[in-house]
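wait is this the right file?? whatever heres the structure
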């Protein structure tokens, strides 16, 4: 009896293909960072958090390289930037139009389920312009008991 093996795509190859598809050269560091970013599904993280993950995974990369790579990924449309606080920028692997909860004190960002917010009454945009994104961040805090 012949068994059929399912082929699981190699994460490194997937990351390289993803980079090439947006016009970025798949360097070793870009592949490693893309693998860490996208292997866990949709997520929100800071450059510092990704750098920590990279170091823990044995990826030799500086924090400056992580920042540069995240901005390259953002410019290529692979990530979305969320400026939640003036001191902290989160990078979102889900680039679709959606809104967020921010849990103060925990510094955690979560997606609001689709259909959770409707936005009415947007102003007319100036001639020659179009709305690129509407960012809504609903700030939450734990109730005091």
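ok assuming it is, sequence goes like this
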């Amino acid at each position: 009896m012949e068994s059929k093996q399912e082929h699981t795509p190699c994460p490194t190859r997937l990351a390289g293909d993803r980079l090439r598809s947006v016009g970025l050269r798949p360097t070793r560091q870009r592949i490693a960072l893309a693998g860490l970013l996208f292997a866990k599904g949709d997520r929100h993280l800071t450059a510092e958090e990704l750098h920590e993950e990279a170091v823990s995974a044995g990826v030799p990369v500086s924090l400056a390289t992580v920042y540069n790579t995240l901005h390259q990924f953002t410019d290529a449309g692979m990530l979305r930037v969320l400026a939640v606080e003036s001191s902290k920028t989160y990078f979102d692997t889900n680039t679709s139009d959606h809104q967020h909860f921010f849990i103060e004190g925990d510094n955690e960002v979560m997606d609001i389920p689709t259909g959770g917010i409707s936005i009415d009454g947007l102003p007319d945009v100036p001639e020659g312009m179009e709305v690129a994104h509407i960012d809504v961040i609903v700030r939450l805090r734990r109730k005091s008991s």
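The longest helix spans residues 63-75. so i think its the right one actually
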